[in-house]
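Hey,
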Amino acid sequence: MSAQIIDGKAFAAKVRGQVAEHVTALKADHGITPGLAVVLVGEDPASEVYVAAKHKQTVEVGMASFEHKLPADVSAADLFALIDQLNADKNVHGILCQFPVPDHLNERAVVARIDPAKDVDGLSVVNAGLLASGETGLVSCTPLGCLMLLRDQLGDMTGKEAVIIGRSNLFGKPMGQLLLQDNCTVTIAHSRTADLPAVCKRADILVAAVGRAEMVKADWVKPGATIIDVGITRIPHPDKPGKSKLLGDVDFAPCSKVAGTITPVPGGVGPMTIACLLANTVTACCRANGLAEPEGLTA
């Protein structure tokens, strides 16, 4: 048996195409251009690359991109003043501050300062609470991307047993809430879970998100299960000196012989994150203007 490989890169391109269609319609029908503001504090090289990718994809789908680069020693007061300005700007529908930020800044306080209606990263306590209570909010991008991939592969997930490895506020908990809303029976496993392999082997849907390279082994996997691998670990490339290699949380080759469907690393979940950020920005724009939300781009 060999698992079907989920092409996250191709699916993300499809999502961006849907976003672009909605943006075109918003401009033509309502004279509105969705706007995304990204705040970068300091000069972290990885963050700069990621912000550049966000800017490029934002412009490509026809949205307005507002970049704000602040020095590493910016005060909390000055950062908050910028966020307040963006909160009040009607041309800005989505705001995110690229993390990590320098140690003197509190990430939770930064997220809390962003208007929840513009919190397109879906990280605020307000949006987490709305999700947990089944109300309408903005959903964290990576869990939303995983949900889209699962819906595309499985359709109706009612009654399926889902196991999520990892209980983080950023991913594990919102992923659990999303799968509950799609009528799965959900277990969130973690470092204290007794007999983790046995728990995982029950899963029709197994989502791994702990950041431990190749932790999930083939004998943890139920035959025919769908595996979503969210983990990313960078190691020195064994065959290319000076280069690095990305590994997921799942031991891919052996597990792909047992699973029915599986995401690779790279090229699986990763491309969905920015695509869902763009989708969330369009959703926030529609809500801010009392317009119908885009179908297929929300939870």
